[in-house]
Structure formats: C-alpha cells, structure tokens
C-alpha cells in the first residue's frame, strides 16, 4: 500500500504542477468550517522527522504544536493494541536489538512483549531523508502511549486530540470478527483513559466505523479513501467528480463525522458538499507547501502531514 501511495504522490505532483491553475481554490469563496480552528495532524507522529509511530515522533508533533496526534494500530497475538502501521513487521524501519535484520512476520503471530524487543528507531526510513534516527526506540502499546501523553499534558497544561487508525492486511481479507475485536478493544482503551471526546477512530476498512458507532457513538469516526491510479490521474487533470461524489456518499452512509481522502480528491465543491452533509474534511498525506495552501483555500477542516514543522509554518491559525 505504501509503495502505491508514494508512487501516486510522485506522479500526481509532477502532473499537478502543470495544471495547478485548473484546481486552484483561491478564487472560490471558502465555505464555513465546522471547527473554529484548522486541525493540524502529525502523520504517524512526525514520520518525516522522527521514526514513525514512536514516542520521539509524537514528541516532535507536540513540539510543532500539532492539534492532533495521528497513529496506526494493530492487534497483537495476545490481543493488545500496538502502535504500528503494517500488519507485518517492517524490516525497512525495525531491526533486532543486536542490529541484525528481521524478517516479515504477521503481528497476529507475535505478542506485544516480542514486538517490544525490536529496535524501531535506529534505522532511518530511506523515503524520508530529514528523518533523524533515535536508536533503541521501542514500539508502544496504546496504553503506554496514553500514559506518556497524559504525563506531558499534566506537565505542560496542554491538551491533545487523537486520530487512531485501525490497520488490517492490505488485501482487505480481515474477517468481520477481527475488525470487531480490534475496534472494540481500541474503544475500551479510549474509554479507560477518558479521552472519548478527544478521539477519532479512522479506517480504510469502513466496517470499523460501523462497529465504532454501535459500541460508542460519542467517539468521532473518519472514513479514509485512496484513489486508484486511473482515478487519481483523472482528478489531477480536473475530472473525476463522480469519484468524489461516490466517496462522500459512502462516508455518509457509514455515519462518518469526518471524510479523510487522499488530497487529490479535495476541491471547493467537495468540501462544501461534505460540509452540507455534516462531515468535516481532513485530507492526507500533505507534504508540499503549495498543496497545503491550496487545501486551506478550499476550506478543509484539517490537514495530515509527515512534516509538522512545515505544517506549523505554512498553515495559519485562528486566535
């Protein structure tokens, strides 16, 4: 999935530079936002700056005043919620504590304790040259994450929001029982730490949203969408409104509070239509200054970026 997304991003940005004027939102009246302020979200903490989905990355997001900490979760063999993007171990970003290479292995076959023997901070992700390694960094359970955040909040008197994604195998082969179990355990932890009003559960697997709404309708839900190559190309050259309307309909059918598409979907009409249906718009993953500015002019409610430092610099905030 990530190789696909990186390829999409490179292709679309190259083509998009040639036709940006076609999609420019600046000349269109910005619709009223549903939030007072723009929701700045550090993707996987701050993947462009520190090892993804680790405490150093979340600290980096906090440093650059992100409103929301965005993270991924997988259910382990011993039914714990671990903060990790892939449903398999990732040799690109993690290694054994002794420095030896790891092999891909399903997280469903590993306990949290086994996963926490890995060093997921020493390797620099080659896709992010600005990323600074933090040797010895361990993976976190969701409970450990909330413990660390609450310690920081108590000390700093600041309060953060959380955008928590459920991850399953990329081929969407997860059985209904796994989706249900993962989502329900995630909600149990959110409730335990009393952050229901500050949490969003997001997923590409929209079954997650259904389970969440049934289990605790007070928790916000966000529907994630990524285009195919062909859909992305059409949207890049100014077409594809049918695809935009389709995902808005799907998100609304799932009673999503937020629609969170790949940024190419977003136009002023897309934002207005989503707002008219009572949904906020928070696109991902936005790593270019020009695109951040375009999205702000479209009236989005938030932006998810690998680079909280750039997001903090570019996106204006309301006082």
Overall description:
Helix content is 39%, strand content 14%. It has 319 residues and is α/β, with parallel strands linked by helices. Helix 9 (268-276) links the parallel strand 9 and strand 10. Helix 5 crosses helix 6.
- Unreliable runs: 13-23, 26-35
Structural class: alpha/beta
Number of helices: 11
Strand content range: 5-15%
Written as H for each helix and E for each strand, in order along the chain, the element string is: HEHEEEHEHEHEHEHHEHEHEH
Q: What is the helix fraction of residues, given as a range?
A: 25-40%
Mean pLDDT: 91
Q: Please summarize the sheet with the most strands.
A: 9 strands, mixed
Tell me the Rg in angstroms. 19 Å
Oligomer: single chain
Short descriptors:
Glycerophosphodiester phosphodiesterase; 39% helix; nine-stranded mixed β-sheet; PLC-like_Pdiesterase_TIM-brl; alpha/beta; GP_PDE_dom; 319 residues
